[in-house]
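Tutorial handout. Part one gives the primary structure; part two gives the three-dimensional structure as C-alpha cells.
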Amino acid sequence: MTSRSTARYTGMAMVLHWAIAILIAINLILVWFADKWPQDWVRPAIDTHKSIGITVLGLAIMRLLWRATHPAPPLPDDYPRWERKAAHAAHIALYVLIFAIPLSGWLHDSAWKDGPTHPMKLFWLAPWPRIPQIAHLPAVPKEHFHDLLFAVHKALAYVLYALFGLHVAAALKHQWIDREPELQRMLPGKHP
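Part two.
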C-alpha cells in the first residue's frame, strides 16, 4: 500500500507546479482587469500577459521533461479506482491546456495586424519572434486567423478555469473532508 507520508512530488515538480499556477493566476488577473485600467496601462498589461504566457510554455516544457524522468508519486491505494482514473485524466487535460493556451496565444499574436510596428519582447528585454507562417499572411486571411485564434485561446482558457476549479475542489475534498494529507503531496517542507 502506498504510504501517504512518502508519496510526495519532488521539489522541482513542486516548484514548477506552483510557478505555473501562480503565473496563470497573474495572467488571468491581467486579462480580467485590462479594460478597467487607464488606457496607457492596457498595452503594457497585454505585453506582460504575452510574456507570462511564453514563460508558462517554457516552464510547461520543463515540467513535462521533468515528469518524463521523475514519475509522479502514486495515489494512495485506498482511493477509489474512479478517482484515480479521473485524477489521471484531469492531469493529462491540464498538461494539454498549459501547452495549448500559450501556443494559441502566440499564434493569435502572430496574426496581429499591428505586430510589425510593435515587436514582441519578453518582459521588455529579449526579442521574441512571431510565427512567420502566420505573421506574413496577406491582410484578409491574417485578420480572420487573428479573430479565430483569439476565440480558440479564450475558449481554451475557460476550459482551464473549469478544470482548475475541479482540481482544487478535489484536492480540498481529500484534504478536509476525507482527512487525507493530499496537499502535503505538493507542498514543500516537512510534513508528518
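Part three, for discussion. The mean pLDDT is 89. The domain at 11-185 is CATH 1.20.950.20 (Fumarate Reductase Cytochrome B subunit).
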